Amino acid sequence: MKISQIGELALLEKIRHRFRTKQRNILLGIGDDAAVVKPSSNKLLFTTDMMVEGVHFDLSLISPSQLGFKLVSVNVSDIYAMGGSPLYMLLNLSAPKSTTVRFIDDLLQGIREALRHYSCSLIGGDISASSHNMISLSATLIGTVRKPLLRSGADIGDRIYVTGNLGDSSCGLAVLKRIGRQVSFLQSGSSVRVRRPASNLLPKLPWKVIEPLLRRHLLPEPRAPKGYAPHATAMIDISDGLLIDLSRLCDESNVGAKVYLDKIPLSPELKKTARHFRKSPISFALRGGEDYELLFTAPQGKKVNARYIGDIVRSERTLVNRSGGEKPFLAEGYQHFS
Amino acid sequence: MKISQIGELALLEKIRHRFRTKQRNILLGIGDDAAVVKPSSNKLLFTTDMMVEGVHFDLSLISPSQLGFKLVSVNVSDIYAMGGSPLYMLLNLSAPKSTTVRFIDDLLQGIREALRHYSCSLIGGDISASSHNMISLSATLIGTVRKPLLRSGADIGDRIYVTGNLGDSSCGLAVLKRIGRQVSFLQSGSSVRVRRPASNLLPKLPWKVIEPLLRRHLLPEPRAPKGYAPHATAMIDISDGLLIDLSRLCDESNVGAKVYLDKIPLSPELKKTARHFRKSPISFALRGGEDYELLFTAPQGKKVNARYIGDIVRSERTLVNRSGGEKPFLAEGYQHFS
Fold first, then answer.
1. Residue A34 is nearest to which of B82, B128, B131, comparing CB atoms?
2. Interatomic CA distance for residues B217 and B158, integer angstroms
3. Which residue of B has its CA nearest to A142?
4. Among partner residues B11, B41, B131, which is closest to A337 by beta-carbon distance?
5. What is the pLDDT of residue A185?
6. A196, B91, B265, B280 — which has fewest CB within 10 A?
7. How far is A43 from chain B (nearest CA, A)?
8. What sign results for the dihedral spanned by CA atoms B170, B176, B180, B181?
9. Distance, C-alpha A242 to centroid of its chain
10. Does residue B41 contact residue B145 with C-beta atoms inside 8 Å?
């Protein structure tokens, strides 16, 4: 059935019913002109992110429920990158009339699973037809934080850390493009169980190698800041790529950075797959986006449970190789309109 | 110059510079992963609205600055409809690479004028390329309210009021389609001065007749709730049309409504123009959208400075004509996907 057969009101009713919420601080959720919320005594965080078909996703490669899960995750990542916790979400969806109700149901299912996973509630939104044959989504997330971690707090002498392996997501996208169709995972509650396909999707690259890469790309789970925040002086999430996001942090802090190439954490799956593709794993790690790991700085001497990859310096921005050779880096990574 | 020539970072920088804000409660505006705001002691309101090219607007008929102004206005209308005041806005914009920098500048100018007009600050957003040749905008507005006015508070015996003339905006759209091109107004600060065109745009319909209709459609200014809120029991803004929005209020309040056709306020310009188009002015008023007047209910006997158009009754929903004849009405007005 197409959504044109059920209409806007029925679609709204469906969403309202599905995301009914009972949380003490939500005085009014979906269904009126605006949602009403009782403010907490902490500071509030606001962020918004779009996902546009043909730019951020390709429906031949990502399923609607994966798309829904990912939309929430990329927004949660920005709240985490401030050291905060997500609370509420607003959803905007524009879709062509020919979209099936099944598609919308699956999309909402993915959104619902993610919201449950991150303990966040949908409190409002807007839906609209789309004039072109294209789906476009955006979410606004409201979070709370006691002490916000800005991009601008890095100091000369601070160490640079990342919270996990880099490059997996963009390598996962390369694998996915090679496979050329949707890959299904079994999601259930907050845990994501993976269904092993009947046969290998790519000859010479076994499922157990490509599965973590695909999962990082299709069902990213941003790194929560708890445990890293106490000592951090500046923080950002890696969404567009290490080099571009580190450059943003340096710009705001008005400092430079030295990154030690051999310290950047790479997964064995990335190394194996990159070798198969005859590409350098480090280039996925430096320029690939959507890892949703945290990149942060902390003073030397603090005990930090994350991977130390570089140092904040006065002004130059360089990559240092194993033998100590340095070369400058630019803010390379995903940029719209270019 | 195209935005593809300046790129995403320069575009973000432009927006950040243009919307630099110094407000006591905004601890951090545009430029980090999320904005940081000090919550007020009042309740917070959240609303979001999209505007999609080819669905909500046609760029051959509306200028980019009018579009920007209107985007803010339609969102402010939802905050007003809760009895609240707008505080902060987040903006999402997706545009094709071929969009000119001039277009973006004009759009931002309209947004800026509207934000100033409504005493509201831009604190964040997201920009993205668009895969199809289509511009899509959305805004999320955060407001504050002491006592929120819901759709659900209407009681049997309450009177139904509207805050101004209905039908002007949809009739303005009909005029605009007849003209077939953009109409320019001079905007300056919060006041909108209108430039009289050199010659009449439509023979037989003088500029002074069509100007207020066009302005209502292109540069709507939602009605602020102050003055109406104290006695109101339920409130909604008329964005999709009187009948559909009144039906929403009745649905939420679980009541019926009687609307007296001869009490619905119609402007002389609407009457004149509808006659010229051989259409009934009342059909613009009942089913036309985007008037952004408030529709509210208040107990009988309260002195209310608005137009009394009907009564809340137990369950039937009817239109009553001059001679007392009643006929049921349906939730007719703009609906997506149908």
1. B82
2. 30
3. B34
4. B11
5. 74
6. A196
7. 5
8. negative
9. 13
10. no
* Interface contact A50-B94, CB threshold 8 A: yes
Task: Identify the closest residue of chain A to B27 by CA–CA distance.
Answer: A43
Q: Report how many helices (DSSP H) and strands (DSSP E) chain B contains, helices first.
A: 8, 15
Task: Enumerate the β-bridge partners of residue B259.
Answer: B310, B319
CA distances (Å), origin A336, targets A279, B5, B242? 24, 11, 41
* B11 touches A59 (CB < 8 A): no
| The two three-digit tokens of residue A205, written as one number | 């690259």
Percent of all residues in chain B with a pLDDT value above 90, rounded to a whole number:
67
User: What are the helix (H) ranges across chain B?
Assistant: 3-18, 64-80, 101-117, 168-179, 207-218, 242-253, 268-276, 281-287
Q: What is the pTM of this model?
A: 0.90
For residue A326, the cross-strand partners are A320
- DSSP E strands in A112-270: the ranges are 121-129, 136-145, 159-162, 186-188, 191-193, 234-237, 256-260
Q: What letters, b where the CB count within 10 A reaches 16 and e where it falls short, cover B201-213?
A: beeebebebbbbb
Rg (CA), chain B: 21
Any idea what DSSP says for residue B197? P
Whole-number Cα distances in Å, A125 to A55, A88, A101, A208, A228: 22, 11, 18, 39, 33
Q: Which residue has the tokens 């320029």?
A: A287
In this structure, are residues B299 and B234 in contact, taking their beta carbons and an 8 Å threshold? no
Give me the residue from B49, B53, B79 closest to A126, CB to CB. B49
Tell me the two tokens of residue B306. Answer: 């608005």
Contact B165, B266 (CB under 8 A): yes
Q: List phi, psi (to 5°) of B333.
A: 165, -165
Taking CA atoms, A316 is separated from A158, A240, A251, A330, B281, in Å, by 14, 21, 12, 11, 69
What kind and span of H or E run contains B181? Answer: none
Statement: residue B332 has pLDDT above 50: yes
- The pair of three-digit structure tokens given for residue B171, joined into one six-digit string: 């009739």
- pLDDT at position A197, please? 56
Q: Edge to edge, what strands does the sheet with A136-145 contain?
A: A121-129, A85-95, A136-145, A43-52, B35-37, B26-28
* Burial class of residue B12, CB neighbours in 10 A (0-12, 13-18, 19+): middle
Beta bridge partners of A134: none
Instruction: Extract the residue ranges of chain A whose pLDDT is less than 70.
Output: 186-201, 338
Within 8 A by CB and 6+ apart from B175, the residues are B202, B205, B210, B213, B214, B273
Can you tell me the distance from the alpha carbon of B177 to that of B58, in angstroms, rounded to the nearest whole number?
10
Check residue B204 and give its pLDDT. Answer: 80
C-alpha to C-alpha distance for A21 and B115, rounded to whole angstroms: 32
